[in-house]
Fold these 2 entries.
Entry 1:
Amino acid sequence: MTYSGEVTVGGPADVHELKDLMITKVAVGPMDNNAYLLRCRATDEQLLIDAANDAHTLLGTIGDDGIASVVTTHRHGDHWQALAEVVAATGARTHAGRHDAEGIPVPTDVLVDDGDTIRVGQVELTARHIVGHTPGSVVLVYDDPHGHPHVFTGDCLFPGGVGNTFKDPDAFASLIHDVETKVFDPLPDETWVYPGHGNDTTLGAERPHLPEWRARGW
């Protein structure tokens, strides 16, 4: 089956099969949050991005192999409602951006800074610190050696715009700057974007709209 990235709460997961990595996307909770399960194909080690809600669904997706770690993209509550239960069930190590960890009620084992590497088996993800939606949001970049990059953006970037900055012009200026300089500038148009809510996109689909996002201020 061709991966579309279109999932609904209560519906089936969608699986993006890459040569070294399997990415399973599932939607959970009343705010239609996306959670992503990454599995290294060489080692079968797994990592979860955002234990957002519905621990039963997430643990069913994880399966009997468990997860080694879970990364919380940012401190907003809709992205960690199931974190305590998932960690209790799996013993996973927790990762979060250094400047958001204090806002997450489950202790963070690994504080993540800009440029840090997070591993899942033999696969490496690079964390980029993005300021604006929250003080410590992180996005994760997988630079696939066999194809184009993949980036998990949390609530920093969606189809049609950057994340909510709650009508704070300084926060928007910071967010659009960081998204441009740390995501759009270094990564090619083919880069696949996996956001915290809704459908996937590519940087190429969104790049032409950056000037209008700046002009409208959101």
Note: The radius of gyration is 16 Å.
Entry 2:
Amino acid sequence: MEKERVSQDYAAEVLDTCLKAGRLMIEGGSETYRVEDTMMRIARNAGITDARCFTTPTGIFMSLGEHSYTQVTQVKKRNINLELVDRVNELSREFAAKEITLKELQERLKQVSISIPDFPIWLQIIGAAILSPTLMVLFMDDYDWIDFPAAAVIGGVSYALYLAIKRYTNIRFLAEMVTAIFMGVITILTCKIFPKLVVDNILIGSLMTLVPGVAITNALRDLFGGDLLSGMARTTEAVLTAIALGGGIGIAIKLLWGVM
């Protein structure tokens, strides 16, 4: 009886560790196959051979058949944080190489979940300011160098607003729509003050920093990999994000139609 109890406690510990690692990877925007591969690798290296898992963007199910244990964890927030995905992957590789124990892996995953690795907000805003004119060059054949500073400033300020809204609200797609409205209004007014600026160039460059490119790529990867449920869910989320961005720009143009 004591041996069975120890075995059950150990299996519960393995399940908890695998689910925590999988949840963190989905929150970081990882593909489904990578999440499942990491969870199964942790289970195998923990000595559990008969493990199964099923992953969706909103929840993870895992079962250890040998012990008849099944647990589920809910994923409430999702973002694009490849640093978080890489950190969890690195911990799973250290566990596979026997550099850390299961207890240490569990503790370090807990630390990662408490202090999620991310770039400072000021650095993200600067990155958006640099990326906006760069994307303008990439997507627009006909552009003027005078649009560069405007695209950089509007892109950086808009991204700062986007981060602020996301921090204080849990309503999905609201941050994208409000930011797009603000971006459209400020761009149109700026181009009205400085007639040499081109609205299309600035809008395209600034808006592309918010387009869910990684989410669309991951959705296609899931679909092509046979994870149809996750692929369709991610595709729907990416499309709704794009609709929120486009709708926000449309509202801004409608409001200021007489100014243009």
Note: The mean pLDDT is 86.
